[in-house]
Amino acid sequence: MQSSTTINKFRVDIITCTSLEQLQQIQHQFQKFIDSQALDTSYSKKIESEYVKSILKLIQSKQNQLSKVSFKFVGDPQPPANLNKSKHDTDAFSNLRSDSITVVDDDYKLTSNHIYISKFSNSRLSLESMSIHLQNGNNSICNIQSSGPVFIQNAINCIFVISCHQARLHHIKDSTVIVENRDKGNPIIIENCTQLLINDVDVDDFNHPSKTTKSPNYNVLSSEEVLRIKQRIPTMELHNINQCTF
């Protein structure tokens, strides 16, 4: 059967790929394949088959594997080129030497080769790096610039303004995501995310792979709404971000 042959090829491509960029391309091609086959009534009943589910699980597993490699620190991180001299920043830099930073109740700025923030809460973050990994956050506004990948997981009630090469969001809830300098055809990836507001960029939702129907996990912001949010960011109350968005 032609579809089985194609699925097996996807499986081999996923297993043998060596970068997140390659995996993203494969995942995008797989979604196109699902969309095209869904139009065929003989295949529509099989669109949620175990074959398709197994590919989605394999993509997720491979993504997790490659993400760990991409964000792994090699040796001691170098001192940041531009670091606020507040007490919180001094403490954070000490944590950086053990590969993680915690930011709580702070206005935090950091420029470094690689940034890994293991917890952030009630803070404003301004980060610039070649790769950035944030996790376990709430009630924060994050301005993120990266020449490489950005990986954010486990966050609620946040605003992320992102400029990067690749963006992957896992387990993000009740948050606003504004991705700048993004060309169509270069999607951001979301997985296990709910109640997101995202500006008008391409999005690959692992929990809603078909493009023929709208994903229930996010809504698209108009350019006017994006501008209004960005204008309000400087004076937003962090504990009430969702209510202040509009």
TrEMBL record:
GO terms under cellular component: cytoplasm
Protein name per UniProt: Tubulin binding cofactor C family protein
Transmembrane segments: none
Top-level taxonomic group: Eukaryota
Positions of the Tubulin binding cofactor C-like domain: 114-201
Record-linked Pfam families: TBCC
UniProt-listed GO biological process terms: post-chaperonin tubulin folding pathway; tubulin complex assembly
InterPro entries per UniProt: CAP/MinC_C, TBCC, Tubulin-bd_cofactor_C_dom
